[in-house]
Amino acid sequence: MLSISKRSLNLGTENAFIVLAEVNKLIKEGKNVISFCIGQPDFSTPLNIQKAAKIAIEDGKHGYTPSAGISELRSAVVNYFISSRKINFSENDIVIAAGAKPFIGYTIKSVTDYGLGDEVIYPVPGFPIYESQIQANGAIPVPIFLREENNFSINPRELLKKISSKTKLLILNSPQNPTGGIIPKKDMDEIVDILKNYPDIWIYSDEIYSRLIYDGEFVSVASYPEMKERTIISDGCSKTYAMTGWRLGFCANRLLAPFLTNWVTNTESCASHIIQWAGVEALNGPQHEAQSMRNIFLKRRNLIVKLLNEVPGVNCKSPGGAFYVWPNVTEACELIGCKDSEELRKLLLNEANIAVLADIHFGQKVKESGHYLRLSYAASEEEIKLGISRILNFIKKRANLN
Ligand code: PLP
Questions:
Q1: Other C-beta atoms within 10 Å of 61: how many?
Q2: For atom 7 of ligand 1, which residue has the closest CA?
Q3: CA–CA separation, 202 and 191 (whole Å)
Q4: How far apart are CA 358 and CA 349, in angstroms?
Q5: How much distance in Å is there from the Cα of 204 to the middle of ligand 1?
Q6: 253 within 8 A of 77, measured Cβ to Cβ
Q7: How is 311-375 classified by DSSP, letter by letter?
Q8: What's the CA gap between 190 and 167, in Å, rounded?
Q9: pTM above 0.90, yes or no
Q10: Is the distance from CB of 337 to CB of 98 less than 8 angstroms?
């Protein structure tokens, strides 16, 4: 009998895509659904970047490139890391791929071995691909929980408890998906102090939201000189330049670059030649559109946080970055008799035409913590106002609060 590997059968996914299919089905049926599910900017890619891609096509940039990427883009990434983080790399330390996502799996494959009990510490709630790639590559997932009382930063004391002699890799993500939390400098200082005692642990620093920061400063763990050698910084064009569908990401680490490059050779061969030239323009060209998208997100963040806090039973902290809010809906669930936020999510979708994601879509439930939803505010101010008023009216009606 033909069989499917356990690895494939057990492979996790991004549940956002499953909810998205549900939402699209309802929209097709004629329902007026407002969606706060999607993890991508709702803007078009800036015109100068679009133009660069057209020129690349016309100029015949049609062939394979080196697996690590074209020199022009790698050199633009070097300059980007200097200007954004004051970190110096050489072109050979940089690898380009089709999005930032592939580097998660490539890194885990490069620093852990299958079935040997190698442990990877990763944030929960968190981007679901961390856990699925850890598992698919035969390593042991060790979640570190992000809590509201800590503004969804990593608690250094909790980190220390999770480290063992088997720990090979720590995944950090700031600003964070799904909470929008950031790791402030004082926490990062403590994290680095701990890591100094464990020189054999690699760090994968997922910095895809680094340009979407609203409160405080963005701190890269690689900017601490003693951490640079063992940190893989991953960033890309998706979120900063509204280029999610173009697929362009980059990462930096001197020791690992040749191995990550070899994974690219073994999988995608190279990122699209045309898109790499668009990336050169994105990084080297004018930055005002990226800045103005960030400013619009900031206005929307303030609006959605204010409106959510007016909904009975909803408590929403103001997140420092990315384009997500992570409201605590524990009281709202109690008010309307829902057992958890997944039940609330389904009710909101089917009875109020509001699409959101629930905490269970981002890993196991955090112990001794409440129920949460994730809303992406990559939506217009009108949609935010209308959408949150629907949630407010739904909860009031269900809880007989009128
Ligand atoms: N890392 C995090 C935390 C994300 O939220 C995402 C996308 O949602 C990615 C990586 C993937 O980015 P890309 O679209 O560049 O592959």
A1: 17
A2: 39
A3: 13
A4: 12
A5: 13
A6: no
A7: STT-B----SBTTEE--B-HHHHHHHT-SSHHHHHHHHHHHH-EE-EEGGGGSSPPTT---BEEE
A8: 18
A9: yes
A10: no
Whether the Cβ atoms of residue 194 and residue 160 lie closer than 8 Å to each other = yes
Per-residue pLDDT, 46: 98
- The CA-based diameter of the chain, rounded to the nearest angstrom, is 65
> Environment class of residue 362 by beta-carbon count within 10 Å: exposed (0-12), middle (13-18) or buried (19+)?
buried
State the 10-residue block means of pLDDT for the chain, 402 residues long: 92 85 89 91 96 98 98 98 97 98 98 97 97 96 96 96 98 97 97 98 98 94 97 98 97 98 98 98 98 97 98 97 98 95 95 95 89 96 97 94 74
Atom index in ligand 1 nearest the CA of residue 244 equals: 14
Please give the distance, rounded to the nearest whole angstrom, from the Cα atom of residue 250 to the centre of ligand 1. Answer: 12
Let me know if 394 is exposed, middle or buried by CB neighbors in 10 A (0-12, 13-18, 19+).
buried
Closest CA to 96 of 278, 287, 264, 290: 264
> Look-up: residue for tokens 């909904």?
311
Atom of ligand 1 nearest to the CA of 173: 3
